[in-house]
Design a protein that fits this description.
The protein has 445 residues and is α+β, with helices and mostly antiparallel strands. It is 33% helix and 27% strand. It contains 14 helices and 23 strands. Bound molecules: '5'-O-(N-(L-prolyl)-sulfamoyl)adenosine (P5A).
């Protein structure tokens, strides 16, 4: 993409109403525009990152054996009356009436609807286990929408639902989700720590939230600093293996890590003092096992193979896809702007032409652009007639992990400059070597 043709309405000034850095940077980089409180338009660059995050979520869900589908955003109130949550959800639910005066709502989550689909089509234990998921817009009429996409009213969520014959099988689904979430967040360059939490409106006793540590986080968290040493890495895991998933769960959840809702001061004080941490975190996901709560309420049963009918055991599992943009920026920025992790960057690298209109510089940039594109990468070429300082400031603000700088002086010696956004370190090399270097970095992901 040529920057001269791209719609990226960068703001020069700091927006006054944005209280946290991720919100400020998303507005300044022209990624989002507020349309009303807690509701945003996703401008091309914001949309691109949203899609990259969504792609990672899809890949990791399907790697774990979960099936993608899509449910409507507008639902009938009837199902929610059946489960008892129509009233229980309270003012957070956006209630709508259609022209026939029927009660409808904008989905805040979809346990009821998926259970209705299940009961209509699945009747036998032989069809289990089953895990379905979607990535779909949700609406919660939050009392205090704030921090941009972090606490929106309209937000994008991956929501998955497992159906199993027994509690043991459903707990395996729970563990499998925990493992796949660890992988998912790491691919986005994030450390998200599973912490014991409260199940709130979803119900059930088993639940973990995934938290990214950040001073601006809305949750207060308490943990043993040893949990931050754990990484999932690229270990091979068989998602069907009960033992393997259980092993990872134990590794990642045995040490003390809890949100304030479940914090236990006496237990916390058993951790050696130098490892006790009280901090803040951003909740980027949550997994639940709630047994037969919805299957009993909505009568979702299967024949158990022994002549009886039994309600299925269920859980649900959410990832805050749109919130993740904010969380990633909170975890990865400096005073000049965003620093995208390679896994989610909107463009793989920037090309800065120091002297637009100079024949050699223009030709070298065009050559780099096609070589990078041919290597399967997407460069953003700053071809504007602007001063070098302004071009660097824009690149630093939007945070592409790699920048190739091209100028007449370097070209005389046959070199361009490759700069890492994260370290700020620059290296001179031939244009061919620059393409090979950037291509190799992304090939290794
Ligand atoms: C799990 C999936 C659920 O809704 N039902 C289906 C379960 N869980 S949850 O914890 O309430 O939400 C899942 C994740 O969605 C994100 N999230 C939000 N993101 C932006 N703005 C909001 N107002 C908002 N509310 C929830 C969080 O990341 C949460 O973990």
């Amino acid at each position: 993409m040529r920057l001269s043709r791209y719609f990226m309405p960068v703001l020069k000034e700091n927006p006054v109403d944005a209280q946290i850095v991720s919100h400020r940077l998303m507005l300044r980089a022209g990624m989002i525009k507020q349309s009303s409180a807690g509701i945003y338009s996703w401008l091309p660059m914001g949309f691109k990152v949203l899609k990259k995050i969504e792609d990672i979520v899809h890949e990791e869900q399907q790697r774990a054996g979960h099936m993608p589908m899509l449910m409507p955003t507008i639902q009938s109130a009837d199902l929610w009356r059946e489960s008892g949550r129509y009233d229980a959800f309270g003012d957070e639910m956006l209630r709508i009436k259609d022209r026939h005066d029927r009660d409808m709502l904008f989905t805040p989550t979809a346990e009821e609807l998926i259970t209705d689909i299940f009961r209509a089509h699945v009747g036998s234990y032989k069809d289990l286990p089953l895990t379905l998921y979607q990535i779909q817009w949700k609406f919660r009429d939050e009392i205090r929408p704030r921090f941009g996409v972090m606490r929106g009213r309209e937000f994008y969520m991956k929501d998955g639902y497992n159906f199993d014959l027994t509690k043991e099988a459903a707990l395996h689904a729970y563990n499998r989700h925990l493992v796949s979430y660890l992988r998912t967040y790491e691919r986005m360059g994030l450390q998200a720590i599973p912490m014991r939490a409260d199940s709130g409106a979803m119900g059930g006793d088993n639940t973990h939230e995934f938290l990214v540590l950040a001073e601006t986080g809305e949750s207060e968290v308490f943990y043993d600093s040893a949990v931050t040493d754990l990484t999932f890495g690229d270990r091979a895991i068989d998602y069907d293996s009960v033992a393997q998933c259980q092993g990872v769960l134990e590794e990642f959840t045995t040490k003390y890590a809890r949100t304030d809702e479940t914090h236990d001061e006496a237990l916390f004080n058993q951790i050696p003092e130098e490892r006790r941490r009280v901090a803040r975190g951003i909740e980027v996901g949550q997994i639940f096992y709630f047994g037969t709560k919805y299957s009993e309420a909505l009568n979702a049963t299967v024949d158990d193979g022994q002549g009886g009918k039994t309600p299925v055991h269920m859980g649900s599992h959410g990832i805050g896809v749109s919130r993740l943009l904010g969380a990633i920026i909170e975890a990865s920025h400096d005073d000049k702007g965003i620093i995208w992790p390679e896994g989610v960057t909107p463009f793989h690298c920037g090309i800065v032409n120091l002297k637009q209109g100079d024949e050699a510089a223009d030709a070298a940039c065009d050559g780099l652009y096609s070589a990078l594109t041919n290597a399967g990468l997407e460069p953003l070429y700053d071809d504007r007639k602007e001063r070098a300082g302004g071009k660097f400031a824009t690149m630093d603000l939007i945070g592409l992990p790699w920048r190739i700088t091209v100028g007449p002086r370097g070209l005389k010696n046959g070199v361009v400059e490759v700069t890492s956004r994260r370290s700020g370190v620059s290296e001179e090399m031939t244009p061919e070597a620059a393409v090979a270097k950037v291509a190799a970095i992304y090939a290794a992901l």
